[in-house]
Specification:
Blueprint: E1 2-6, H1 11-22, E2 27-31, E3 47-49, H2 55-64, E4 67-72, H3 79-84, H4 86-106, E5 111-115, H5 140-159, E6 162-167, E7 170-172, H6 187-196, E8 202-204, E9 216-217, E10 219-221, H7 222-238, E11 245-247, E12 254-255, H8 256-267, E13 274-276, E14 285-286, H9 291-297, H10 305-318
Parallel strand pairs: 1-2, 1-4, 2-3, 4-5, 5-6, 6-11, 7-10, 8-13, 9-14
Antiparallel strand pairs: 9-12
Helix pairs in contact: 1-7, 2-4, 4-5, 8-10
Length: 324
């Protein structure tokens, strides 16, 4: 028996696969490699190249690899771009999730861990986001993740599907030098690429009502995130009680200014960030409580900010030039 990881060749997915393997749980990966990389997977990895929109491919994988559960990470993950490509976002994230659930039902696969997003909250007006904070997504991406949660809940009522959804903000760091974050939209890669190109990293606004004037966000280490996915899967396997949603939050957050200072220290490249105007819609602070996940999923922040930056920098510098 094995767990299928959709999007398992991506930055987060490859870490989830490694976390399962570390616990001795067999995995199989389905990924269309639109953003994932085959090189992120180990040589002996069971890999199926294809889209979650291909129901027959999914059903064949479930049957061939004796799949007992799914970790669903595949999707279009760029919130800003989703505003310009709403139909593509809904096709990948909503139609894809629907197709996956249909294939699961057809083959009797009855448990799923869904990688959701804190984008479902939009811009909350509370200091600390909890699972009951009202949901007001502000992009097709955030909307698609919320719809995904609804699909799981509806399917659970209809078929007894066992499920949970994990919501989180900014994932950083690396658990292995072989896997780095290649996204052109995330803060760490943007800062690293600027430094490697001899450019000065940029901060969007330094006049927010925060301790150093820069935005405060949740930044969590990808290996900690991966571990939470495995524990959630283990609870589903064991038939233990599990909540429908969990926030994987730090509880206190880190400012963009703090990140810049940590990057300068870790890399040894001294720089003063360029200060650009605020980006429209950027709230001063968004931080989530991880108390519920700590209770049930052994969730905790196992890595300091310095460790997050150092592991991410090592993985980026280890990447082959033709793989960046």
């Amino acid at each position: 028996m094995s767990w299928l990881v959709t999007g398992g060749a991506g930055y987060i997915g490859a870490h989830v696969v490694r976390a399962f393997q570390a616990k001795g749980i067999d995995t199989v990966v389905v990924d269309d490699l639109s953003s994932g990389r085959r090189s992120f997977l180990t040589d002996d990895e069971r890999f199926v190249q294809g889209s979650i929109l291909d129901g027959r491919l999914l059903e064949d994988a479930f049957e061939k690899f004796h799949v007992q559960g799914v970790v669903h990470l595949a999707g279009f993950k760029y919130a800003g771009v989703s505003v310009k490509r709403p139909l593509h976002t809904y096709q990948q994230n909503v139609a894809g999730t629907s197709m996956l659930l249909a294939a699961m039902e057809a083959k009797g696969v009855d448990r799923i861990v869904f990688s959701s997003s804190a984008a479902v909250y939009g811009t909350p007006d509370v200091d600390l986001v909890t699972e009951t904070t009202p949901k007001h997504p502000e992009s097709p991406y955030g909307e698609s993740k919320l719809i995904g949660e609804w699909l799981l809940a509806d399917q659970a009522r209809a078929t007894g599907l066992r499920h949970t959804s994990l919501r989180y903000f900014n994932v950083v760091g690396s658990g292995t030098p072989e896997v780095f974050d290649p996204s052109p939209h995330n803060l760490f890669p943007l800062v690293f690429e600027a430094l490697l190109d001899g450019r000065t990293p940029r901060i969007n606004g330094d006049d927010y009502p925060t301790p150093d004037g820069t935005c405060v966000r949740d930044y969590i280490h990808v290996a900690d995130l991966a571990e939470a996915h495995v524990v959630a899967a283990q609870r589903l396997d064991a038939g233990e009680p599990i909540e429908p949603v969990y926030n994987l939050g730090s509880g206190d957050g880190v400012s963009v200014g703090e990140i810049m200072r940590a990057v300068a220290e870790v890399t040894g490249i001294a720089f003063d960030p360029e200060i650009a105007p605020r980006r429209e819609g950027d709230p001063a602070r968004i931080v989530a409580s991880g108390e519920l996940a700590a209770r049930d999923l052994d969730w905790r922040m196992r890595h300091s900010l310095t460790e997050m930056v150092a592991s991410a920098w090592e993985a980026r510098r280890s990447a082959p030039v033709d793989n960046v």
